[in-house]
Amino acid sequence: MxxxxxxxxxxxxxxxxxxxxxxxxxxxxxxxxDVPVKRLSExxxxxxxxxxxxxxxxxxxxxxxxxxxHRKYLPRVFTEHGxxxxxxxxxxxxxxxxxxxxxxxxxxxxQFLATHRQVSAKLDELERTVxxxxxxxVTLFDAVRSLMATLEKPKRRMAQPG
Length: 162
Fold this sequence. Notes:
two-stranded antiparallel ribbon
């Protein structure tokens, strides 16, 4: 079995994309599983009942006529579960080994996004708090300026008899 450290986890993480709100991996999965894209596609076709790509295929795209203008089909992408399914249908030791790294990468991405949402929520809360404090500070400055204006008016001296 190949050494897992040959492909660092961050390389797998960089291969994960967000497509239409789903975290997916595209043809990089074939490279990670050390199989040609053609073989991966064949196995997906043969195991269509297990595939989840139908929901990610474009329903409104139109193609120009002519050979070689565009792909006839969009490239396949795999969610975390689809990547595991692909590893099981490929039935190769490398695919099984790499599927563990792929799942770890998806998990780390999910944790990162959860942390990001928490930090974003905290920043929003802090911004609301600061905005409320800003209003109070402006009111305080206005009150201080008003007091200073009344103190700065010169007092009239009384004329001395003379």
